[in-house]
Structures are given as structure tokens and as C-alpha cells.
Design goal:
By secondary structure, this protein is an all-alpha fold. The protein contains eight helices and no strands.
Length: 180
């Protein structure tokens, strides 16, 4: 099977399973979380079997889904799942900012083969992503605290996805300006 197809399935399959179970299960997180956790762990296992390694970001995501999903189920409190995106985005912002303290641009480390841009471009891109991750954390907090669970579930995927696509597209002029 094509590796890019497998990657797509392992990246988005658990989310599709979650949505299918959530919507068909009466919009109940308690019903949708176990299949999400299981399918996420299976996806990580599939990636490991095929590639003999697991990238840190999917591993972190799977760990957090399992931990916060498990806490949501154990305490019967969806707040744990609601705060997961906030924690992930703050964590990414901290990692990128922390790298700056040691003159290490982690964004460049991750995407160096995707973009050939100068140091000024990498630094600007890094700073923008730090701010974007903070923005996503704040917007997630505002949405889950002021909207229904159903709205939050839809926003979590579709709203954040749109914000991310638009933000990423807005970075293209910077990338083009600083191309080597």
C-alpha cells in the first residue's frame, strides 16, 4: 500500500472514527472517546510497524489523547478533553520559544527539508508560529468555556483547521521573500 495513503489514514482515521461515533452516538463524548483512543494507538502502532520509528509530534498527540481522554472518562468530566488542545498549543509555543533561548530554531529543525529560507526568515516564521499557537490556545479556551459541547467538537476540528490553513497560507509571502 502507498506510504502517503497510510500516513493520511493514520493521521485522519482516528478523527474520522471519533466524529462518526460522536454523531451517531447521540453526540456523547463518553461513547466517542474510547474508539478515539484505541484508533489513535492503533494508528501509532501501524506507523511504527511500517517505518520502524514514530515521530515525536504524533507520539505526543497520541499520549495526550490517551491521557486526557482517559481522564475525561474516569472523572466523567469533559473539561479534560476540552483543555487538551490548549495544552498542546501552549506546549508547542513553549518549545519553539524555549529553542530561541538556546539559539535553536526547532521549526527549522523540523521543516528544514521542506523550505530553503535564510535565518531571518526562519526566525520570523518561528515567532509567528509561537504567536499562532498562543492564539489557538486562547481561542480554544474561549470556545469551550462559552459554547456547547457540540459546537466545541465541530470548532475543534473544522474551525482550528481553517485557522491553520489560512495562517499557513499567509506565511507563503514570508517564505518566498526569504528563499535561498
Amino acid at each position: 500500500m502507498n506510504k502517503s495513503l497510510i500516513k493520511f489514514i493514520t493521521d485522519f482515521g482516528p478523527l474520522l472514527i471519533f466524529f462518526t461515533v460522536y454523531y451517531r452516538g447521540g453526540n456523547d463524548l463518553r461513547i466517542a472517546i474510547p474508539p478515539l483512543i484505541i484508533s489513535t494507538l492503533v494508528a501509532i502502532l501501524i506507523v511504527y510497524v511500517i517505518e520502524k520509528k514514530i515521530a515525536i509530534i504524533p507520539l505526543l498527540g497520541a499520549s495526550l489523547v490517551s491521557i486526557f481522554g482517559g481522564l475525561t472518562l474516569y472523572f466523567d468530566n469533559p473539561v479534560f478533553l476540552y483543555i487538551k488542545p490548549t495544552i498542546i498549543n501552549i506546549l508547542f509555543a513553549i518549545i519553539l520559544a524555549f529553542g530561541k533561548l538556546f539559539n535553536k530554531n526547532f521549526l527549522k529543525v523540523i521543516f528544514k527539508s521542506a523550505f530553503l529560507i535564510d535565518e531571518t526568515g526562519w526566525n520570523k516564521l518561528n515567532n509567528r508560529w509561537i504567536l499562532f499557537f498562543i492564539f489557538l490556545a486562547i481561542i480554544n479556551e474561549l470556545v469551550w468555556r462559552t459554547q456547547t459541547e457540540y459546537f466545541w467538537v465541530n470548532f475543534k476540528v473544522w474551525g482550528i483547521l481553517i485557522f491553520t490553513f489560512v495562517f499557513t497560507a499567509c506565511q507563503l509571502p514570508l517564505i518566498n521573500k526569504h528563499k535561498i
